[in-house]
Amino acid sequence: MCHDPDSGPPIPPIAGAAVSHDDLVLESADGNRFAAFAAGPDTPARCGVVVLPDVRGLHHFYEELALRLGEQGVAAVAIDYFGRTAGVGKRDEDFPYADHVPLTTAAGIQADVAAAVAHLRSQAGGEAVFTIGFCFGGRHSWLSTAGGHGLAGAIGFYGSTGPRNGEDGPIQRAAELRAPILALMGSADQAISPADVAAFDSALAEAGVEHEVITYDGAPHSFFDRKQQQFADASADAWQRVLGFLEKHTPG
Predict the structure, then answer these.
(1) Is the overall model pTM greater than 0.85, yes or no?
(2) Which residues touch 205 (CB under 8 Å, ≥6 apart)?
(3) 39 beta partners
Protein backbone atom coordinates (compact mmCIF):
# COMPACT_ATOMS: atom_id res chain seq x y z
CA MET A 1 0.00 0.00 0.00
CA CYS A 2 1.23 3.50 -0.79
CA HIS A 3 -0.50 5.38 2.02
CA ASP A 4 -2.08 4.65 5.40
CA PRO A 5 -5.88 4.81 5.68
CA ASP A 6 -5.68 8.17 7.45
CA SER A 7 -3.12 9.70 5.08
CA GLY A 8 -3.93 12.79 3.07
CA PRO A 9 -2.36 15.15 0.54
CA PRO A 10 0.03 17.59 2.26
CA ILE A 11 -1.73 20.60 0.70
CA PRO A 12 -3.53 23.16 2.86
CA PRO A 13 -7.05 24.02 1.66
CA ILE A 14 -7.60 27.49 0.23
CA ALA A 15 -10.17 29.19 2.44
CA GLY A 16 -13.10 30.64 0.54
CA ALA A 17 -12.39 28.86 -2.75
CA ALA A 18 -15.60 28.12 -4.67
CA VAL A 19 -15.34 24.44 -5.61
CA SER A 20 -18.04 21.96 -6.61
CA HIS A 21 -17.67 18.18 -6.42
CA ASP A 22 -19.63 15.08 -7.31
CA ASP A 23 -19.48 11.29 -7.32
CA LEU A 24 -19.69 9.95 -10.88
CA VAL A 25 -20.02 6.70 -12.76
CA LEU A 26 -18.24 6.91 -16.12
CA GLU A 27 -18.34 4.41 -18.96
CA SER A 28 -15.40 3.51 -21.18
CA ALA A 29 -15.58 2.53 -24.85
CA ASP A 30 -15.47 -1.18 -23.97
CA GLY A 31 -18.61 -0.81 -21.83
CA ASN A 32 -16.85 -0.81 -18.46
CA ARG A 33 -18.60 1.32 -15.84
CA PHE A 34 -16.33 2.68 -13.12
CA ALA A 35 -16.52 5.04 -10.18
CA ALA A 36 -14.99 8.50 -10.31
CA PHE A 37 -14.92 11.67 -8.24
CA ALA A 38 -15.03 15.07 -9.93
CA ALA A 39 -14.10 18.44 -8.46
CA GLY A 40 -13.59 21.82 -10.03
CA PRO A 41 -13.97 25.56 -9.69
CA ASP A 42 -17.36 27.20 -10.01
CA THR A 43 -15.81 29.44 -12.69
CA PRO A 44 -14.46 28.01 -15.98
CA ALA A 45 -11.46 25.75 -15.38
CA ARG A 46 -8.10 26.63 -16.87
CA CYS A 47 -7.29 22.97 -17.59
CA GLY A 48 -8.32 19.44 -16.66
CA VAL A 49 -6.48 16.69 -14.77
CA VAL A 50 -7.22 12.98 -14.56
CA VAL A 51 -6.05 11.71 -11.14
CA LEU A 52 -4.71 8.14 -11.19
CA PRO A 53 -4.59 6.71 -7.65
CA ASP A 54 -2.26 4.17 -6.09
CA VAL A 55 -3.12 0.46 -5.94
CA ARG A 56 -6.14 1.06 -3.70
CA GLY A 57 -8.09 2.67 -6.51
CA LEU A 58 -10.48 5.51 -5.76
CA HIS A 59 -9.68 6.44 -2.17
CA HIS A 60 -10.44 9.54 -0.12
CA PHE A 61 -6.78 10.63 -0.47
CA TYR A 62 -7.37 11.18 -4.18
CA GLU A 63 -10.81 12.70 -3.74
CA GLU A 64 -9.16 15.25 -1.46
CA LEU A 65 -6.42 15.84 -4.02
CA ALA A 66 -9.09 16.53 -6.65
CA LEU A 67 -10.58 19.15 -4.32
CA ARG A 68 -7.20 20.81 -3.83
CA LEU A 69 -6.77 20.94 -7.62
CA GLY A 70 -10.22 22.44 -7.93
CA GLU A 71 -9.18 25.23 -5.58
CA GLN A 72 -6.39 26.01 -8.04
CA GLY A 73 -8.87 26.52 -10.87
CA VAL A 74 -8.37 23.03 -12.29
CA ALA A 75 -11.14 20.58 -13.19
CA ALA A 76 -10.10 17.18 -11.79
CA VAL A 77 -11.50 13.66 -12.07
CA ALA A 78 -10.08 10.91 -9.84
CA ILE A 79 -10.84 7.45 -11.22
CA ASP A 80 -11.14 3.92 -9.91
CA TYR A 81 -9.39 0.93 -11.51
CA PHE A 82 -11.69 -1.89 -10.48
CA GLY A 83 -15.02 -1.37 -12.22
CA ARG A 84 -14.46 -4.53 -14.26
CA THR A 85 -13.93 -6.73 -11.21
CA ALA A 86 -15.51 -4.95 -8.22
CA GLY A 87 -18.30 -2.75 -9.57
CA VAL A 88 -18.92 0.89 -8.78
CA GLY A 89 -20.03 0.85 -5.13
CA LYS A 90 -18.27 2.64 -2.28
CA ARG A 91 -15.72 0.49 -0.42
CA ASP A 92 -14.31 0.44 3.07
CA GLU A 93 -10.68 0.06 4.15
CA ASP A 94 -11.01 -3.74 4.12
CA PHE A 95 -11.44 -3.87 0.34
CA PRO A 96 -8.98 -6.55 -0.93
CA TYR A 97 -7.41 -4.34 -3.59
CA ALA A 98 -4.41 -6.70 -3.87
CA ASP A 99 -6.71 -9.33 -5.37
CA HIS A 100 -7.88 -6.89 -8.04
CA VAL A 101 -4.69 -5.11 -9.10
CA PRO A 102 -3.29 -8.16 -11.00
CA LEU A 103 -6.56 -8.30 -12.97
CA THR A 104 -6.04 -4.81 -14.41
CA THR A 105 -4.39 -4.29 -17.78
CA ALA A 106 -2.68 -1.29 -19.31
CA ALA A 107 -5.25 -1.32 -22.12
CA GLY A 108 -8.17 -1.38 -19.69
CA ILE A 109 -6.75 1.47 -17.64
CA GLN A 110 -6.20 3.53 -20.78
CA ALA A 111 -9.79 2.91 -21.87
CA ASP A 112 -10.92 4.33 -18.53
CA VAL A 113 -8.51 7.26 -18.79
CA ALA A 114 -10.04 8.02 -22.20
CA ALA A 115 -13.50 8.21 -20.63
CA ALA A 116 -12.24 10.57 -17.91
CA VAL A 117 -10.48 12.75 -20.51
CA ALA A 118 -13.69 12.91 -22.54
CA HIS A 119 -15.63 13.93 -19.43
CA LEU A 120 -13.17 16.74 -18.71
CA ARG A 121 -13.24 17.94 -22.31
CA SER A 122 -17.02 18.10 -22.11
CA GLN A 123 -16.65 20.70 -19.36
CA ALA A 124 -15.87 24.37 -20.01
CA GLY A 125 -12.14 24.99 -20.17
CA GLY A 126 -11.23 21.32 -20.40
CA GLU A 127 -9.32 21.27 -23.70
CA ALA A 128 -5.86 21.05 -22.11
CA VAL A 129 -5.94 17.80 -20.13
CA PHE A 130 -3.17 16.26 -18.03
CA THR A 131 -2.78 13.15 -15.92
CA ILE A 132 -1.29 12.93 -12.44
CA GLY A 133 -0.67 9.62 -10.73
CA PHE A 134 0.89 8.06 -7.64
CA CYS A 135 2.84 4.77 -7.45
CA PHE A 136 0.80 2.38 -9.66
CA GLY A 137 -0.96 5.48 -10.96
CA GLY A 138 2.30 7.32 -11.59
CA ARG A 139 3.35 4.59 -13.98
CA HIS A 140 0.01 4.70 -15.78
CA SER A 141 0.04 8.51 -15.84
CA TRP A 142 3.22 8.47 -17.89
CA LEU A 143 1.94 5.63 -20.07
CA SER A 144 -1.22 7.64 -20.72
CA THR A 145 0.80 9.89 -23.03
CA ALA A 146 1.04 6.87 -25.35
CA GLY A 147 -2.72 6.28 -25.16
CA GLY A 148 -3.83 8.56 -27.96
CA HIS A 149 -5.64 10.97 -25.61
CA GLY A 150 -3.95 14.14 -26.85
CA LEU A 151 -2.67 14.98 -23.37
CA ALA A 152 -0.90 18.23 -22.60
CA GLY A 153 1.42 16.45 -20.15
CA ALA A 154 1.72 13.75 -17.51
CA ILE A 155 2.91 13.90 -13.90
CA GLY A 156 3.95 10.88 -11.86
CA PHE A 157 4.91 10.55 -8.20
CA TYR A 158 7.14 7.54 -7.48
CA GLY A 159 5.80 5.48 -10.39
CA SER A 160 7.41 2.18 -11.33
CA THR A 161 9.44 2.45 -14.50
CA GLY A 162 10.03 -1.11 -15.74
CA PRO A 163 7.98 -4.16 -16.75
CA ARG A 164 5.10 -5.21 -14.49
CA ASN A 165 2.84 -8.26 -14.76
CA GLY A 166 4.34 -9.09 -18.13
CA GLU A 167 3.63 -5.63 -19.60
CA ASP A 168 6.30 -3.14 -20.67
CA GLY A 169 6.80 -0.06 -18.54
CA PRO A 170 7.63 3.57 -19.24
CA ILE A 171 11.31 2.80 -19.87
CA GLN A 172 10.53 0.23 -22.56
CA ARG A 173 7.82 2.44 -24.09
CA ALA A 174 9.63 5.78 -23.86
CA ALA A 175 9.66 6.23 -27.64
CA GLU A 176 5.82 6.02 -27.65
CA LEU A 177 5.30 8.81 -25.09
CA ARG A 178 3.79 11.87 -26.76
CA ALA A 179 3.66 14.65 -24.15
CA PRO A 180 5.92 16.33 -21.60
CA ILE A 181 6.70 14.27 -18.51
CA LEU A 182 7.28 15.30 -14.89
CA ALA A 183 8.59 12.59 -12.54
CA LEU A 184 8.78 13.26 -8.77
CA MET A 185 10.80 10.56 -7.02
CA GLY A 186 12.44 9.78 -3.68
CA SER A 187 16.07 8.73 -3.36
CA ALA A 188 15.24 6.37 -0.47
CA ASP A 189 12.38 4.63 -2.26
CA GLN A 190 12.55 0.92 -1.38
CA ALA A 191 10.58 -0.07 -4.49
CA ILE A 192 12.21 2.15 -7.14
CA SER A 193 16.00 2.34 -7.07
CA PRO A 194 18.13 5.30 -8.14
CA ALA A 195 19.26 3.12 -11.05
CA ASP A 196 15.62 2.69 -12.13
CA VAL A 197 15.11 6.44 -12.02
CA ALA A 198 18.32 7.11 -13.95
CA ALA A 199 17.34 4.56 -16.60
CA PHE A 200 13.95 6.26 -17.02
CA ASP A 201 15.60 9.67 -17.34
CA SER A 202 18.01 8.30 -19.95
CA ALA A 203 15.27 6.53 -21.91
CA LEU A 204 13.21 9.73 -22.09
CA ALA A 205 16.24 11.73 -23.20
CA GLU A 206 17.13 9.17 -25.87
CA ALA A 207 13.54 9.21 -27.15
CA GLY A 208 13.51 13.01 -27.31
CA VAL A 209 10.66 13.33 -24.81
CA GLU A 210 10.48 16.68 -23.01
CA HIS A 211 10.84 15.78 -19.38
CA GLU A 212 12.02 16.67 -15.91
CA VAL A 213 12.96 14.07 -13.32
CA ILE A 214 13.21 15.38 -9.75
CA THR A 215 14.61 13.20 -6.96
CA TYR A 216 14.21 14.28 -3.34
CA ASP A 217 17.18 13.33 -1.20
CA GLY A 218 16.27 10.90 1.58
CA ALA A 219 12.59 10.78 0.66
CA PRO A 220 10.90 7.36 0.68
CA HIS A 221 8.11 5.95 -1.44
CA SER A 222 4.86 7.81 -0.68
CA PHE A 223 6.61 10.83 0.82
CA PHE A 224 3.79 13.08 -0.46
CA ASP A 225 1.66 12.69 2.66
CA ARG A 226 0.78 15.14 5.42
CA LYS A 227 1.67 12.43 7.96
CA GLN A 228 5.27 12.50 6.65
CA GLN A 229 6.13 15.75 8.40
CA GLN A 230 9.86 15.22 7.98
CA PHE A 231 9.39 15.48 4.21
CA ALA A 232 7.12 18.52 4.29
CA ASP A 233 9.65 20.61 2.37
CA ALA A 234 9.93 18.01 -0.38
CA SER A 235 6.14 17.78 -0.60
CA ALA A 236 5.75 21.55 -0.76
CA ASP A 237 8.34 21.76 -3.53
CA ALA A 238 6.69 18.88 -5.42
CA TRP A 239 3.27 20.57 -5.26
CA GLN A 240 4.69 23.81 -6.60
CA ARG A 241 6.32 21.87 -9.42
CA VAL A 242 2.96 20.25 -10.21
CA LEU A 243 1.27 23.63 -10.42
CA GLY A 244 4.14 25.07 -12.45
CA PHE A 245 3.99 22.15 -14.89
CA LEU A 246 0.25 22.65 -15.41
CA GLU A 247 0.76 26.38 -15.93
CA LYS A 248 3.65 25.93 -18.34
CA HIS A 249 1.88 23.43 -20.57
CA THR A 250 -1.59 24.95 -20.59
CA PRO A 251 -2.03 27.18 -23.66
CA GLY A 252 -2.60 30.81 -22.79
Answers:
(1) yes
(2) 211
(3) 21, 76
